[in-house]
Amino acid sequence: MNKDQLLKKRYRAEKRFKFYGLVSITLAILFVIFLVNVIFSKGRAAFQRTTIAVEVNFNTEELELSSNASIEEIQDADFYDLSINSLLKLYKTEGAKQEKELLRVFSPDHDIEIKNFLIKNLDNLNKNVIVNLTTSDDIDQLHKGNYPRHLPEERRRISDFQLLIYDQLVKENKVNKVFNTFFFTNGDSRNPEVAGIGGSLFGSFFTIIITLILSFPIAIFASIYLEEFAPKNRITDFIEININNLAAVPSIVFGLLGLGILLGTFDLPRSTPLVAGITLSLMTLPRIIIPCRASLKAVPPSIREGALAVGASKVQSVMHHVVPLSIPGTLSGTIIGLAQALGETAPLILIGMVAFVVDIPATPIDPSASLPVQVYLWSEQAERGFVEKTSATIMVLLSFLIVMNFIAVYLRQKFEKKWS
Amino acid sequence: MVMINNKVKIKTTNLNVYYGDKQALNDVNLEIHSKEVTALIGPSGCGKSTYIRCINRMNDVIDICRVTGSIEIDGNEINKKEIDVVSLREKIGMVFQKPNPFPKSIYDNVSYGPNIHGLAENKVKMDEIVETSLKKAALWNEVKDRLNEPGTSLSGGQQQRLCIARAISVNPEVILMDEPCSALDPIATAKIEELMDELKKSYTIVIVTHSMSQAVRVSQRTGFFHLGKLIEVDTTEKIFKNPNNKMTQDYITGRFG
Ligand SMILES: Nc1ncnc2c1ncn2[C@@H]1O[C@H](COP(=O)(O)OP(=O)(O)OP(=O)(O)O)[C@@H](O)[C@H]1O
Ligand SMILES: [Mg+2]
User: Fold this and answer.
1) What ipTM does this complex have?
2) Which of the four CATH numbers 1.10.3720.10, 3.60.15.10, 1.20.1420.30, 3.90.330.10 does domain A198-415 have?
3) Which of A299, A310, A326, A420 is the best mutation test for B, with the most CBs of B within 10 A?
4) What is the pTM of this model?
């Protein structure tokens, strides 16, 4: 082969290599688009809630309240009768069966919704007001166009009479779609139309904070010690190997550890962010230590020598020069470790975070759910409302992960830019 | 005729250095005299850097490095565990073969040493130290308007002078320079050589150099290393005019190395 042919061959090889790269990137992007599309098309509807405008007369006599009742009094009052009466006025019914069907158009907690409305708008006492009440999941889906209303009646959960009511109300412009704040503020519920991720948001938040507080300082000091101060001998080699092994241990094993030791031996409260945080810290520690050590190692030895040569002590040379230079790698390693912890499900299931918790946790020792476990729980439900909420929760979880990863990238660039 | 001072500042006896199994220095017996410039010459890899790194115990940071034999400074043994290397290195400054400024501002590079040793009571005093150090290192005029820029943004030669300024900022007694001028242009080199002339009035200087003419210009005493052994050491005049050893003769006349 002469020189010309060799040159051509080299160019061809380069083109081929570029082509392979482009193909794999295109495939990767297509998969991501597919995934996002599936989740988005399913989950989008969960951010909307169907309501029906109902006229309510907040008559103090009917509620057995004084005319200037305080919030506490209203809290204690019974709104059930008022609520039922207001709903029954919507459509003419005959007999108990039809009454029941009319009430079933709404979410079962309509009286609480009315009460909460009054608490927020106290000046409506003794007035006739329009309140938008949440519909049942079936009506919600019907209004969103997901309900098979053409099926024969015996194969639907919505009766013909309910369809009549619905169509009439739509004609009267009383059925609306509003932004579903319940999804973010409510805890879990058996009724998909009012179920929300408020509880799991707080649960995940507390869990991640505990994981951060426990694992970050330990990981930082462990990596600084191992990288800069520890003598290089068999013991440190052994520790190093074990840290690497721990990072590869399946997360469910840490769940077993949490179950056996934290719940079993130490008797910590079950299903709580505290236990979840400790368990996830154990899992996250090696995953943070490894990138931290790598970024410490990446600091050139000449910097350490420069500091030592002007008479800095070992600690000074590390703290003044090496650690600041390793900050970008350390921070992004930590954030990515925490992001992994945020999405972790298996260990949380083992320590009982799968319990059905309605209340929003106020402290890390209250039972609570967490975002990934909420996804798991809802994905097992058949109701269409839960299906869309599953996808919506995944969207929320993914956006947290994306934000965290962006922060990691941003920090790395910001600190690195400064000196290069 | 140069005045030769006879007071010995640094004395190494039977100095052996090993990197793992590999011996880098072999029974080096060398006396470095106070207030003069000693040049170390020799072919690449013969152990010059290794030798000067023994004097401020910089080889401690290399795990596989082992140093045996005696190193005395002003008659005090320093090659033993109990020696406080921090105060030793405060007294013995070093300029490395490759420029290694801190990735901090030019000002912080120079002020770091005085800062950790508490040499300046206040900002004014510190400014003064930074300025004189940079002036001595012949860098002041180039950087006086951008002291807050990163030291790493300077050119290679400027970085080397910054490292020199950093080394003299703490007023050491001995300055070890490992090829300080290898990245410098002739003008900067001349300035550094002037600086050495100036510094040797009060300091002891050891310089590693590959430039025979530089050794002749700046040093009063020269040691020739070859394959980890100190072949010959004498006054610079003697080494370059009439060396005892044939190898030295061959090396300085460029016949090998
Ligand atoms: N950190 C190290 N680990 C292992 N061997 C080393 C190390 N540093 C130096 N050596 C070895 O020690 C010997 C002497 O090296 P040294 O750096 O002292 O040479 P030098 O005379 O300064 O050379 P040059 O003029 O090229 O700088 C060389 O053979 C080198 O390979
Ligand atoms: Mg060298």
Assistant:
1) 0.90
2) 1.10.3720.10
3) A310
4) 0.84
